[in-house]
Amino acid sequence: MASYLRTRPEHTAQTPETGGMSLRTRWAIAGAIAGSSLTGLLAAGSSALAVYFARRVITPARQRTSDQEVLAVIRDGQKQQVILAATDDTTVDGRYGFYFDGGKGHARIGRIISYSPAERTVLREVEAVYAGDLSAARWGWWSGALYPDPAAVGYSAEEVAIPVERGEAPAWLVRAGGTARTWALMVHGRGASRQEALRAVGPALELGLTSLLLSYRNDGLAPSADDGRYGLGSTEWQDIEAAIGYALDNGAEEVVLFGWSMGGAICLQAADLARYRHLIRAMVLDAPVIDWVNVLAHHAQLNRIPSLVGRYGQLMLGHPLGRRLTGLSAPVDLKAMDWVSRAVELRTPTLILHSVDDEYVPYKPSALLAERNPEMVTFEAFNHARHTKEWNVDPERWERLVKAWLRQQLAPRLNPGARPGEQPV
């Protein structure tokens, strides 16, 4: 290199390698090669990030992340209090579940006793410890699921099995008194379990509804799908269809679907595609995914993933050629699950309860769906509840809204063309 720098360009010897090229030309070519290599590396890095993003969305987590720190447990006679690191979750009033020791431990956490912003700590009441030793816990995760099973709430339940594609999906059956014509089928969210739905059983029983708290493919209880991947609602609805069939075989004449988060997306697909969709009387959806494109763009932004990379990840999910990279056995049709665009196609009466500060599933698609189809969709906004914890923050309001709305939907209906005063059916 030094000899080239000392040689005048016009006196450079011609060789097969240089072909008489000037120093400036050779530097230009070298720069182009280096630039294209860098572009290739950046493109490869973006592709890898897009693949990672897409796979993370559809791959069930084997273990929840323990991201909530326990600082101390204080015992006061038979009662306990817990000092927690102050976070966006632990500083919101209400009642919650706290899981620790890898999920083996479970406590029910109550009201805030004191909060120190300066020390970033919060003292909360411990209402119950169902499993494990909370005093030995150092880390765990926050949850909207307060109770471990129906018995902990005081409900008598049966463990039943729903025949599904690859075996049997366990479910809790909580019977209403008498003969219930209408059953409530409850569908938990992504990464959650049927425990999440226990919050809705009380209102359902008050309305005379028998409740079936479901599991579905890839949730850790039901059989896994062939590809072991979430379909984001595009495949899971088939397990809900099977559950409706089970309910009909066991005395139900119609059903109400309850869904949380991705469970809401699953319910919407069942109402659209299931062969029993005409028997779905109504849906109650808590923080539902109305538009996956919106949710995925939101999560790309949260994780500081460039929007173009995020869109590339979405393309991989929906394109047949993306299956080799994502592990999906079939593409996920995100457009078919965009209910803002398909608003007028929704013909099942639907109540949506959604907090405006939801950090996981933005609320605006829920509000837009109600705005575009007010005949079928009722939207109720909550505040300071974050994701799927509307009941935890304000159980009285949540239950009041659900019961009042469902009473209207479940009221006897007149026969088509019936005259006023005629007997309803």
Automatic annotation (TrEMBL):
Positions of the AB hydrolase-1 domain: 185-294
Coiled coil: none
Ranges annotated as spanning the membrane: 27-54
Alphabetic keyword roster: Membrane, Transmembrane, Transmembrane helix
GO molecular function (one): catalytic activity
InterPro entries per UniProt: AB_hydrolase_1, AB_hydrolase_fold
Pfam families: Abhydrolase_1
Protein name: Secreted protein
Species lineage: Bacteria, Bacillati, Actinomycetota, Actinomycetes, Micrococcales
